[in-house]
Design goal:
This protein is mostly helical. It has two domains: 1-39, no CATH class; 40-93, no CATH class. The chain is built from four helices and no strands. The longest helix has 20 residues, at 20-39. The two termini are 25 Å apart. The mean pLDDT is 79.
Length: 93
């Protein structure tokens, strides 16, 4: 817990030291970073986070259905069970 708090304080200090343009860029890119984290699994060892890997199938498969213009009702019958199975497999590995 203490380490997590220290990293938040460090991030806040680094954000405070950024220039106006860098702060603006960070704020504009942050939503896209979160969408990327929820739709693509991490592939580098240092960015691996088990929480995102377990959440990834729900966002990733839903995004794939949206990107390929598949009817959303198929998400309930195909995508949701596949997401649950993938999440369980990622959780136990």
């Amino acid at each position: 817990m203490k380490k997590r708090l220290e990293t938040r304080v460090e991030r806040a200090n680094t954000f405070a030291n950024l220039s106006f343009l860098q702060k603006f860029e960070f704020l504009m890119l942050y939503p896209f970073e979160m969408i990327r984290k929820l739709t693509m699994p991490p592939c580098e060892d240092e960015s691996y986070n088990k929480k995102y890997v377990i959440i990834w199938p729900f966002g990733g498969i839903l995004f794939a259905f949206w990107a390929f213009n598949v009817n959303c009702i198929y998400w309930l019958y195909i995508g949701l069970p596949a997401s649950i199975m993938l999440s369980l497999a990622f959780y136990f590995t």
